[in-house]
Amino acid sequence: MEEPIVKVEHLSHRYSIQWAVRDISFEIPRRGIYGLLGSNGAGKSTTMNIISGVIKQTEGQVFIKGIDARKRPVDAKRHIGFLPQKPPLYGDLTVEEYLIHCARLRWVADKDIIPAVDEVLAKCGITHFRKRLIKNLSGGYQQRVGIAQAIVHKPDLVIFDEPTNGLDPNQIMEIRHLIRDIAKDRTVILSTHILTEVQAVCDHILMIEEGKLVFMGTVDEFDNYIIPNSLYVSMIDPPVADELAKIEGVLGVEELGNRNFRIRFTEAQEVIDQIVKLSAANDWRLSEVRVEKSSLDNIFAELSKKAH
Predict the structure, then answer these.
(1) Most CB contacts within 10 A, which of 10, 76, 99, 175?
(2) Edge-to-edge strands of the sheet including 157-161?
């Protein structure tokens, strides 16, 4: 059986007397984009820093492709690329000089350094800036340089901590596209507190709140964490709300205005069938009926309660 790319066992970390992360365990078995979600101060960055080897955990173990990151940190780090919230850039170096420096730090063989740098320059769309000083690049292109240094040594695992922070909408779209491209042949962990970022980019979600893992699953499983219990119904010539409330299986009716209603139900399909049937019989002129899914914000709030 193939080793998971990341395996975390009973991970805890304490700053002074306060626990930032408490008894977290999870595995990342395959390629894809895994979103590490949580509010500010939830423990995301601490978890990322421990996995990437920036800090040592107080308790627990981290394995990278079966390698104990605490006992064999150099071997583990060969498989990891990391972009922290603030890219570790040297503004007085050119893009090419900086990436050559990073390749040497990652023990890329001398004969492979220039081909490796050429490859990441092309992949990150910054070949035309190779001779430019990093300090003269825009924020979006500096972020691309930061991503390039994280993949110059061809790691199996790439960790991005808030990679679109401070970028404009166009730059955000470009970085998201680049992250998806990188994830085609390696595993990506993306740490963020922005729900739409997770929905736009990730395949799987791990949610940390108050240092505890409160959810792990696919994006679809996250979206459906709260079971829908209401219908959105729109009619051109609707009856009064009391009449809708009498339909079998209806628990309550809320008027939303403009001939729209929110109808709470016990079983969706039975109530939908009744509404369609009664609308045709009474000429209510039904124009829309759909199950309402909980918003991402509501799901986030509900999961956050599990940490208390």
Answers:
(1) 99
(2) 80-83, 157-161, 187-192, 32-37, 204-209, 212-218
Q: What is the CATH number of domain 6-223?
A: 3.40.50.300
For residue 198, the model assigns a pLDDT of 85
Burial 251-290 (b: 16+ CB within 10 A, else e): eebeeeeeeebebbbeebeebbebbeebbeeeebebeebe
Which parts of the chain register pLDDT below 50?
Answer: none
What distance in Å separates the CA atoms of residue 58 and residue 19, rounded to the nearest whole number? Answer: 9
Pick the CATH number of 230-292 from 3.40.720, 3.30.300, 3.30.70, 1.20.120: 3.30.70
Q: Would you state the pLDDT for residue 87?
A: 86
In the numeric block, the tokens 């899914």 are attached to: 293
Which residues 6+ apart lie within 8 Å of 104 measured at CB?
A: 113
pLDDT at 296: 63
Neighbours of 136 (CB within 10 A): 12
Task: Please give the pLDDT value at position 145.
Answer: 96
Q: What is the pLDDT of residue 268?
A: 84
Where in the chain is CATH 3.40.50.300?
6-223
Nearest to 132 by CA among 190, 191, 84, 92: 92
- Side-chain-facing half-sphere of 148: CA atoms under 13 Å: 31
Q: How far is CA 20 from CA 41, 196, 200, 216, in A?
A: 8, 25, 28, 19
CA torsion through residues 94, 97, 103, 107, sign: negative
At residue 226, the pLDDT reads 64
CATH 3.30.70 residue ranges of the chain are 230-292
What pLDDT does residue 266 have? Answer: 82
Instruction: Report the amino acid identity of residue 114.
Output: I
Contact 28, 62 (CB under 8 A): no
Please state the three-class secondary structure of 201-232 as a single string: HCCEEEEEECCEEEEEEEHHHHHCCCCCCEEE
Within 13 A of 269's CA, how many CA atoms are on the CB side?
A: 0
